[in-house]
Amino acid sequence: MNMLSATLSRVKPSPTIAVSSKAAEMKAAGEDVIGLGAGEPDFDTPDNIKAAGIRAIEEGKTKYTAPDGIPELKQAICTKFKRENGLDYVPAQVSVGTGGKQILYNALMATLNPGDEVVIPAPYWVSYPDMVLLAGGEPVIAEASMQTGYKLTPDQLEAAITPKTKWFIFNSPSNPTGAGYSWDELKALTDVLLRHPHVMIMTDDMYEHLVFDDFEFCTPAQVEPALYDRTLTCNGVSKAYAMTGWRIGYAAGPEKLIAAMRKIQSQSTSNPSSISQWAAVEALNGPQDFLASNNATFVRRRDLVVKMLNEAEGITCPTPEGAFYVYPSIAEIIGKTSPRGTVIENDEGFATALLEETGVAVVFGAAFGLSPNFRVSYATSDEALKEACTRIQKFCASLT
């Protein structure tokens, strides 16, 4: 008897979680490890948001809610979309899930049939292809390069679309590269999508507020209103509001799709935590001034990491527009040998040797669909980043 589903053989565990787990195990064993793999801010959740969660507990708001969100949170989401993105939605067009990941998964489960294709630009967040596979679809990877700033070109998108394409997944600023699409760059992609009315657009805007310098965020339905009825605009409170553990994601889109996602959620997790929902209301409706302060910290850290990595032998590190990641290339390092005799055959080998020989944990590029690279999360202290980058510099200099 085969105990496990055949569908499970189509997917793999999350590499980012695996890296963080291994680093934690080494730390617990007393080793000096600096973890640069986790994709979460090191800031604490703002006090007003924590207070809203505490208040919800004290007021007894600890019961079941509607499967996909309380009315107050859905209204706050509608207000946010209008205020920040110029998009008009009503609560019936909004779904709230247990984190952004559940929102994306619900949408794919609600829409994909065997053989349906989903176009995913690479480098991609590690979960996109596997969620498509779990839902019975087929990922179609459209590979961007460092030469284009890790951004998909209109010609690449056009070439990836077929009559079987159901979704195009779009993420800006990007995990893992931090690359952000300007209005004109995004308009060039939406012009392609207008020519293919059978393709729906799933936008992952989780890093919307984590943008730097003079970059201005925009989202597909905002850039091209004609795509409004085909777009699921996804977001959440995890990254910008430092609420990763609260687990609240949300999306707005066509009512028929939202209703289908509600049906799936009602038979899987049911409602997200009631306490977290009330905290998210405060996050969206409350003061937003801390965002600028947090971003200033991220800019300082980004500039530090980019500078130090570009000073390392064999590493080329572009400067990203947002999020809190960099995605350097190690093309010049492949084939070299580490001090302990490890031949660096690929980026996974580089990340493994780096962790074992220096105690610095990064995520290898193959996990994100583009090699030879690695991802660094700079959502940690300046001191830890300086020490980690110094170790990376010494490691690279020691390769022969």
From TrEMBL:
<dbReference type="GO" id="GO:0006520">
    <property type="term" value="P:amino acid metabolic process"/>
</dbReference>
<dbReference type="InterPro" id="IPR004838">
    <property type="entry name" value="NHTrfase_class1_PyrdxlP-BS"/>
</dbReference>
<comment type="subunit">
    <text>Homodimer.</text>
</comment>
<dbReference type="GO" id="GO:0004069">
    <property type="term" value="F:L-aspartate:2-oxoglutarate aminotransferase activity"/>
</dbReference>
<dbReference type="InterPro" id="IPR050596">
    <property type="entry name" value="AspAT/PAT-like"/>
</dbReference>
<protein>
    <recommendedName>
        <fullName>Aminotransferase</fullName>
        <ecNumber>2.6.1.-</ecNumber>
    </recommendedName>
</protein>
<dbReference type="GO" id="GO:0030170">
    <property type="term" value="F:pyridoxal phosphate binding"/>
</dbReference>
<dbReference type="InterPro" id="IPR015424">
    <property type="entry name" value="PyrdxlP-dep_Trfase"/>
</dbReference>
<dbReference type="InterPro" id="IPR004839">
    <property type="entry name" value="Aminotransferase_I/II_large"/>
</dbReference>
<keyword id="KW-0663">Pyridoxal phosphate</keyword>
<keyword id="KW-0808">Transferase</keyword>
<dbReference type="InterPro" id="IPR015421">
    <property type="entry name" value="PyrdxlP-dep_Trfase_major"/>
</dbReference>
<comment type="similarity">
    <text>Belongs to the class-I pyridoxal-phosphate-dependent aminotransferase family.</text>
</comment>
<dbReference type="InterPro" id="IPR015422">
    <property type="entry name" value="PyrdxlP-dep_Trfase_small"/>
</dbReference>
<feature type="domain" description="Aminotransferase class I/classII large">
    <location>
        <begin position="32"/>
        <end position="392"/>
    </location>
</feature>
<dbReference type="Pfam" id="PF00155">
    <property type="entry name" value="Aminotran_1_2"/>
</dbReference>
<keyword id="KW-0032">Aminotransferase</keyword>
